[in-house]
Here is the input.
Amino acid sequence: MIEIEDTLQNGVPNVTFKNVSFSWPGKNEHVINNCNFSINKTGLWMIVGKNGSGKSTLLKLINGLLIPSNGVINKLANIGMVFQNPDHQILMPNCRSELLLNINQNLSRKDISNKIDIALNKVGLAGFDKRSIHTLSGGQKQRLTIASSLISDKNFILMDEPTALLDSSSQLAVLEIIKGLTKNKRNPFTALWITHRLEELSYADAVAEMKNGNLSDWQKPFNFQYN
Here is the structure.
């Protein structure tokens, strides 16, 4: 087993799996089985698959929460994570303090305020810096978790069914925010998004299916057929 991880300072974030397998301790069956794929372009990449197919395990391997049993994972990216339920991710009482928690630089007070304003503006929460978390809707909380990744300079965000608990308008808002971020050529940004909502696939730049612990080839949404 080998895992290689580097931090990308500039350029396009990318992740590559080479013959990666994973099984839980004491289990012979592989959850991830000799998996090979590469994400080497910015954009919104989506994965679909049935429950138990290995989708969430794949994200945990990319994020370093799990170590592969075999194979090589190359990560040239600053990786962040957005969970299905934002309440499991938000720790502080208001938007400003939550974003302060995620700033990983030694900045002046003015620069911190500017950075917070920019992050909130990017996710459609301009002016929300003093808002209490308990006053936010589910969609606003999810947008705040995205802002937290942006303010910590993440350029490759893993998104595990981020719209599953949101109403239809909030689902659309989160989709459009992420899609917009991936189109910003000055700040290369990639999102890997797990979904069960087939209607979301039309927003993707590439789609693949997770099945039996392996990932299919990447396809354009209009060519993709879910088996």
